[in-house]
Design brief:
- The chain is of the alpha+beta class.
- Helices cover 42% and strands 20% of the residues.
- A hairpin with a 2-residue loop joins strand 2 and strand 3.
- Helix 1 runs antiparallel to helix 2 and helix 2 runs antiparallel to helix 4.
- It is globular.
- The termini are far apart.
């Protein structure tokens, strides 16, 4: 005869009221995509859907750009192998991480070359993250399969203001190129 520690099934929490978004601290979503050219599109669509479900729509332009760039770089550096995308919301920031199977190189010159390739592939993403006041980086994956972990953290306020910031920059650049009085 077995002994069960529970005398009854756990009680389900109350259902949220209609239209109420999930709590932000529950935002944790992961997705495995093929190492293929179309995977960046899949990642952007998935991240956009998750953000809309959590009513974080203002973060979507920056977040989908970053997710797409992370996945595209992973595909370019490790084509044909699966990529793992993780999206989390913690400490008032959206954290996007991609794991790819490209293992770090033991030889210093190869490692430096590979690091330069990864940084070059992520230039656009780095500009978006910088514009949002966030941070990004990469390093050896701590996952059992090894590889590389590339991540970006987008503070909520900075990501929400991203399009406004970029729009002001573009407007300023365009205005500076126009002759006086032609705006």
């Amino acid at each position: 005869m077995s002994v069960h520690p529970f005398t009854a099934c756990p009680v389900s929490p109350p259902e949220p009221t209609a239209g109420e978004p999930p709590a932000l601290d529950t935002l944790t979503c992961s997705l495995t995509v093929p190492g293929a050219p179309h995977s960046a599109q899949i990642a952007r669509a998935a991240v956009g859907s998750v953000l809309r479900a959590y009513r974080l729509d203002p973060l979507e332009p920056a977040a989908v750009q970053v997710a797409g760039e992370l996945v595209a770089a992973g595909w370019k550096l490790d084509p044909g192998r699966s990529l793992y995308l993780s999206v989390r919301y913690r400490d008032d920031s959206l954290r996007l991480t991609v794991y790819d199977g490209h293992a770090p190189h033991a030889h210093p010159r190869l490692a430096a070359h590979c690091e330069a390739r990864r940084r070059a592939a992520l230039r656009l993403m780095a500009a978006v993250v910088r514009s949002c006041g966030g941070a990004w980086g990469f390093g050896e994956s701590r996952e059992p399969g090894g590889g590389t972990r590339t991540w970006a953290s987008l503070p909520r306020a900075g990501a929400a203001a991203y399009l406004g910031h970029v729009g002001r920059q573009l407007k300023g650049e365009t205005a500076s190129r126009l002759p006086a009085g032609s705006d």
